[in-house]
Amino acid sequence: MDEPDWLKWAREAQAIAQAGLTYSRDEYDLDRYRKLRALSAEMMAAGSGTDLRQVETLFAGETGYTTPKIVVRAAAFQDDKILLVQEETDGKWSPPGVWADVNQSPAECLVREIKEESGFDARILKLAAVYDRHKHPHADIVPHYVYTLFFICEITGGSPQTSMETTAVDFFDENALPDLSLPRVLPEWIALAFAHYRDPSLPAVFD
User: Fold this and answer.
1) Taking the chain, what is the end-to-end CA distance rounded to the nearest angstrom?
2) pLDDT by residue (tens digit) across 111-131?
3) What is the torsional sign of CA 177, 178, 179, 183?
4) How many CA atoms lie within 13 A of 141 on its CB side?
5) What is the pTM of this model?
6) Strand, coil or helix: what is 67?
7) How many Å apart are CA 76 and CA 150, to the nearest integer?
8) Residue 165: which of 60, 93, 62 has the closest Cα?
9) CATH superfamily of 69-206
10) What are the domain boundaries of the chain?
11) pLDDT tens-digit readout, 129-176
C-alpha cells in the first residue's frame, strides 16, 4: 500500500526541524524549529493514533542530521529450507533481523542477531537486496524512514533456542510458509531469498 500523504509530510517536517535544531544558532530560528517539531509530532500522533507524548519523546531523542534507519535481516538456509522465528509481539513469523548497531558491521550485527533470536550460528554469504521499506506494502506505519539490508546466509552450527523476542524457531519449505509478520517481511522478499539461494550468481536488487 502507498503511504498516506500525512505521514510523508510529518516525517519530512520532523527532519527539517531536527536539522534546524542541529545547525541553527539563532534563538528565534531555534524556537521556530521547535514549533515545527511539535507540529510534526501532532501530525504523526493524530494520523497514527499514537499518544502524542510518546511521539514527542521519540522526536526529542533524535539529534543530528536526519538519515534513514537501517534494518539488517537474514535469509538463512539449511537443507533447502529457510530459517524463520515466531515473533513474540504478533505471533507471526519472520527471518531474524534487527536495527543496525554502531561499532558493528551489518554482517556482524546479523550474525549476532541470528544467534540471539534462533540459537543458530550462521555465516553471511551475500547481499540479496537493499529495500526502501516505504516503497513496499507493509502492514504498519513507522515514524522513521527505513532501509532494509537483506542478506543470504548459511547455518553453520547451533541448535534451536528462543529468546525474549521469539517464541518458536523452525525451518520452512518455500511452498509451506507460515503466517508471515508483514511489518517485518513480505512474501516477495522470501521468494527473492529462495531465488538467490538457488542461484548465488544473481545480483542484488535495490530500490
Assistant:
1) 16
2) 999 999 999 999 999 999 999
3) negative
4) 18
5) 0.80
6) coil
7) 10
8) 93
9) Nucleoside Triphosphate Pyrophosphohydrolase (3.90.79.10)
10) 5-60, 69-206
11) 999 998 998 877 788 889 999 999 999 999 999 999 999 999 999 999
Beta pairing, strands 69-78 & 97-99: antiparallel
Residue found by looking up cell 544473481 in the block = 202
Residue 125 φ then ψ, to 5°: -100, -45
CA distances from 25 to 29, 39, 64, 129, 194 (A): 8, 21, 14, 40, 52
| pLDDT score, position 144 | 85
DSSP string, 8-35: HHHHHHHHHHHHHHHH---HHHHHHHHH
- Give Rg (Cα) of the chain: 19
Asked if 94 contacts 84 with a C-beta cutoff of 8 angstroms, the reply is yes
Q: Please report, rounded to a whole number, the percentage of residues in the chain having pLDDT higher than 90.
A: 82
pLDDT of residue 164: 93
- Whether residue 151 contacts residue 74, with contact meaning beta carbons closer than 8 Å, is answered with yes
Give the CA angle between residues 116, 127, 174 to the nearest 5°. 75
Closest CA to 183 of 154, 151, 146: 146
Number of other CB atoms surrounding residue 207 within 10 Å: 12
Specify whether the CB–CB gap between 48 and 58 falls below 8 A. no
Residues in the chain: 207
C-alpha 18/C-alpha 58 separation (Å) is: 12
